[in-house]
Structures are given as C-alpha cells and as structure tokens.
C-alpha cells in the first residue's frame, strides 16, 4: 500500500476516534476476563477455533462482546476512512469502506487501537478468489461459472474503491490488499443492524466485525441465536447445544451449501445436510426447448419478464400441483438434465494431475472432494427419479 505517512497523520488529527487507545486496551483486558472460559485452540479437523474450559448447556450465552470492541459502520465513519467518505461525492457500501478501514489500520500496526485484533487475522484464505486459475479449472462447470461471476463482482468492488480513493490521492490499495480485507470481512462478519448513513449505500449495510467471537467455527448441527443485547450493550451468542469441557464450541453461519461455503469461507463439509446441486437456468431452458415442451417459449418469456430466473425460480416448483402431462415432462427433463450434468462432472475428474490424493495440493483436494459430493448428489437424484 502506497500512501504518505504525513498525509495520514494530517487526516488522523481531524478525526475523533470512538474510544482512545488506552480505553480500548483496557477493554481488551476486560474482554479477556469475560471470555476466559473459551480458549483459542488449534483443532485437527477445523484449524483454529474456540475450546470451552467448562461444560456448556442449552440456553447458555457462550460469548458476549461489548459494543466498543465491534467494528461497525460507526467505527468506520469515525475513522479517517469516514473523513474521506464525508468529503467525497461517491458512496461506497459498508464492506468496501470496512475494507479500506482494515487495510489502513493494518498498516499502522501497533499505532492502531485495533492492532491486537488485526494481527491475529488470517493472512490468506482458501476461498475460490485465492485459487490459481489451473485449480479453478478443476471445478464443475456450474461452480466455475459462479466463481467467474463472483470474481467479476470482486473486481468491480475494487475498481469502485480505486475510483473513490483517486480523488483523495492519499490512500492507495493494491488488489491483493483489498482481496485480503474483503475476505476477512466476508468470512468473519456478523449481522448487526445499522442505521442508514448518507455516506454509505444501503446494500449490505448490516455487518460488523466482532473480535474473538469470530474465532468460532461453523457446524451444521449448531443451533444458536445471535443478537445485540441493549441491556448490557453486548453482542451475544446463545447456544441451544451442549458442549463438554474441552470440546470445540461451534456456531452456525447459516444453512449454506458446500459451494457457498467454499466460495465465501474456503471450506466444505462432507455431510452437509444443506447441500444442493444448483442447475443452470439456461441449460434447463435448452433441454425444454429441445424436447419441444408445450408453451415453452411463452413460459420462458413470463419467467424472464418477471425476472424469476434471477430471483426465486426454485420456489415456483415447491408445493404447486401440476398436471400429469407436465409432471411427466418434468420427470423426463430432469432425467436428461441430471444425466448431462453427471457426464459433465465425470469429464472433470480426468483433469486432475494425480489420482493419488496425497500428491494433490490442498486446493486440488478441495476441488476433488466437492466434485465427488456433486457426483453423489446427482447419482442419488437420478435414483430417486427411477
Ligand atoms: C469466522 S472464522 C472462524 C475462525 C477461523 N478458523 C480462524 O482461525 O480465524 C471462519 C473461517 O474458519 C474456518 N472454518 C470455520 N468452520 C470450519 C469448519 N467446520 N471446518 C473447516 N474450517 C472452518 C474457515 O476458514 C472460515 O473461513
């Protein structure tokens, strides 16, 4: 990151921080006391996570992070990034603004009140945005397409930041710095209600970073309630699970499919009950047209005019009863599509540099595991149709 220290100091002086450095250091000490029952630990299966030093029962609050520790829209607006936002005619979304915030605070190192937090953030991620293009080619066509679209969006977010910063001429961030900060936020932020601001767009504005709490790993069996408690001014997580002494404590990041977990968090789970195999809308239409399905062009027009293909086209098939003719057509179409997808998936297996898993890199192993999971979903679905 190229930026002049002199300029940074100049901006810094004009900005009021939400808490002074001493206050935050004291708070960090206090936080350590509060969370002493959870200890950061390296686990073989999940990597770094939190271990409990006492049994936890359903209904227990496992963690409570006081508001001054949260990096919220308020924190960003009160920082030098907020100063830049307030004098610019351009708006950013909160994740973009937080990205610049994290990078500028990281550059300050010990001078930053957030350094104790920033220095324990991962340096890199296994999310698909960090994969080499030769490894991305080992993904199924659908996942590859989704990744390609996500990478384009990422580039757009970066370009917008560069445009925003170009007027200030005081801060420059590289794409790699941006990508690091973006995925810190992507994989670690909590849902936190924020009021609208004239300087930040409303999209995706309800996020915050919660130091220490973000050391909790995800499990599909975890049941939690997370919310800000106005009575004690803390962001709290209550669990509905039990944990024995020395167990790893898990939370749930949501009912995410493996593709979503890989794209946003950089891992997959072999027995993920929320896994899905997403079919591509254009492929479905192609098969329906080839089968000369009744009224297909009319249906296609209705779907596209109402943008159902972009939003919730999955939902329309959910509970509605359909005619016998359509039922047969859907079954026939599904069989063709699933078989096509299965062939497609199988054609990717041959691209792996080795059949021996131990000779594959971690990303290649992730790609192989995901491919096998996708193959299994397709095989099971084909069986169900027979
Ligand atoms: C909110 S952080 C959790 C703490 C993180 N493990 C750390 O060391 O900072 C989310 C990241 O943790 C990892 N993670 C979370 N749950 C996991 C799981 N069940 N298996 C493997 N990795 C997991 C992923 O790298 C994910 O991006």
Summarize this entry quickly:
The protein is α+β, with helices and mostly antiparallel strands. It is built from 14 helices and nine strands. It has helices at residues 5-14, 21-34, 73-77, 80-87, 94-108, 115-118, 133-136, 141-168, 175-188, 258-264, 281-290, 296-305, 324-349, 362-385, and strands at 38-43, 47-52, 61-66, 189-191, 207-209, 217-218, 224-229, 234-239, 248-251.
Share in helix? 40-55%
Write down the secondary-structure element order.
Answer: HHEEEHHHHHHHEEEEEEHHHHH
Low-confidence residue ranges: 1-20
Largest pleated sheet: 4 strands, mixed
Number of domains: 2
- Overall strand count: 9
Head-to-tail CA distance between termini: 58 Å
The CATH topology annotation of the largest domain reads as: set domain protein methyltransferase, domain 1
Query: How is the largest sheet built, in terms of strand order?
Result: 1-2-9-6
**What's the CATH architecture of the largest domain?**
Alpha-Beta Complex
Strand content: 5-15%
How big is the Rg? Answer: 24 Å
Domain SET: 31-254
Protein name: SET domain-containing protein
Organism: Mytilus coruscus
GO molecular function: protein-lysine N-methyltransferase activity
């Amino acid at each position: 990151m190229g930026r002049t220290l002199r300029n940074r100091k100049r901006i810094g002086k004009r900005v009021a921080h939400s808490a002074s450095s001493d206050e935050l250091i004291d708070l960090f000490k206090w936080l350590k006391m509060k969370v002493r029952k959870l200890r950061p630990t390296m686990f073989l299966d999940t990597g770094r996570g939190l271990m409990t030093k006492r049994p936890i029962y359903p209904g227990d609050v496992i963690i409570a992070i006081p508001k001054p520790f949260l990096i919220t829209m308020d924190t960003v607006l009160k920082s030098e990034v907020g100063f830049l936002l307030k004098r610019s005619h351009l708006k950013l979304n909160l994740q973009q603004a937080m990205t610049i915030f994290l990078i500028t605070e990281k550059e300050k190192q010990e001078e930053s009140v957030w350094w104790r937090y920033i220095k324990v953030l991962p340096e890199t991620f296994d999310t698909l945005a960090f994969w080499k293009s030769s490894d991305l080619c080992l993904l199924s066509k659908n996942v590859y397409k989704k990744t390609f679209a996500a990478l384009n969006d990422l580039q757009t977010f970066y370009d917008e930041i560069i445009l925003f910063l170009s007027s200030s001429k005081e801060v420059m961030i590289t794409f790699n710095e941006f990508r690091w900060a973006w995925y810190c936020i992507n994989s670690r932020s909590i849902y936190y209600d924020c009021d609208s601001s004239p300087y930040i767009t409303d999209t995706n504005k309800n996020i915050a970073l919660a130091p220490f709490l973000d050391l909790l790993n995800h499990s599909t069996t975890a049941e939690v309630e997370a919310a800000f408690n106005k009575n004690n001014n803390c962001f709290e997580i209550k669990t509905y699970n039990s944990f024995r002494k020395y167990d790893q404590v898990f939370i749930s990041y949501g009912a995410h499919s493996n593709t979503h977990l890989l794209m946003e968090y950089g891992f997959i789970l072999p027995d993920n009950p929320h896994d899905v195999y997403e079919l591509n809308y254009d492929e479905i239409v192609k098969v329906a047209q080839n089968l000369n399905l009744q009224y297909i062009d009319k249906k296609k027009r209705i779907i596209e005019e109402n943008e159902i293909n972009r939003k919730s086209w999955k939902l329309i098939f959910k509970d509605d009863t359909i005619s016998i003719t359509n039922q047969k057509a859907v079954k026939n179409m599904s069989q063709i599509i699933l078989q096509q997808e299965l062939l497609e998936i199988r054609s990717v297996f041959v691209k792996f540099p080795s059949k021996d898993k131990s000779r594959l890199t971690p990303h290649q192993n992730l790609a192989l595991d995901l491919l096998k999971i996708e193959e299994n979903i397709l095989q099971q679905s084909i069986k169900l149709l027979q």
